[in-house]
């Protein structure tokens, strides 16, 4: 893929990500019904209800981390941060993607960010072993076929090139960010909200 197309696509991807993140932030400032700007005296750091909401996100963080790390490096959490997977099985079918240099470096950074998210969640509310993830090309092909409501020919392969990889990357974190935006108003404790 030529560099101009890559840049245009990345800009669009970032703009979408930031707009979703901003709307989450704005909502939490304007509508914040429970958490004030400072911790009220006697505030509870972690409400029991918050734990499940954040732990739910952990599933997605595992998915994102391994998808990005494998795509960029050819290996994932088992090598980068084995203590975080807590004995969960390695992902099925994850592989290094055929990325151009710029995209590969950005995706590697995304991967390290996800490792940080996982660590933040686990140290705040505790974790669980990484679930079995199916990151095989054929699983992505199935998802894309369902999205298009007919089988693509040739089947969609996220690992084939930078554009395909970014299309699949777009599908994954979008679910995560909207999940956070949706869960944020329901988080009550300042410590879980900060995460
Ligand atoms: C992964 O997903 C693909 C496509 O849905 C499926 O064919 C394959 O059996 C799955 N692999 C495992 C080990 O479940």
From TrEMBL:
Keywords of the record: Signal
Key word Signal present: yes
Record-linked InterPro entries: Pigment-catalase-like
One Pfam family of this chain: Ferritin_2
Signal sequence, start to end: 1-23
Source superkingdom: Eukaryota
Protein name (database record): Desiccation-related protein PCC13-62-like
């Amino acid at each position: 893929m030529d560099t101009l197309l890559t840049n245009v696509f990345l800009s669009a991807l970032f703009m979408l990500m930031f707009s979703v993140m901003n709307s989450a932030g704005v909502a939490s400032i304007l509508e914040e019904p429970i958490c004030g700007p400072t911790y009220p005296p006697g505030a509870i750091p972690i409400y029991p209800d918050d734990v499940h909401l954040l732990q739910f996100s952990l599933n997605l963080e595992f998915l994102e981390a391994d998808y990005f790390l494998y795509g960029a490096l050819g290996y994932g959490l088992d090598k980068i941060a084995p203590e975080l997977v807590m004995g969960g099985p390695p992902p099925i079918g994850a592989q290094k993607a055929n990325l151009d240099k710029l995209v590969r470096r950005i995706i590697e950074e995304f991967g390290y960010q996800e490792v940080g998210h996982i660590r933040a969640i686990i140290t705040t509310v505790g974790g669980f072993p990484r679930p079995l993830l199916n990151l095989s090309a054929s699983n992505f092909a199935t998802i894309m076929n369902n999205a298009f409501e007919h089988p693509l020919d040739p089947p969609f392969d996220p690992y084939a090139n930078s554009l395909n990889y970014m299309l699949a990357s777009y599908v994954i974190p979008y679910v995560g960010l909207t999940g956070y935006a949706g869960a944020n108003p329901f988080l009550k404790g300042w410590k879980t909200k900060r995460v």
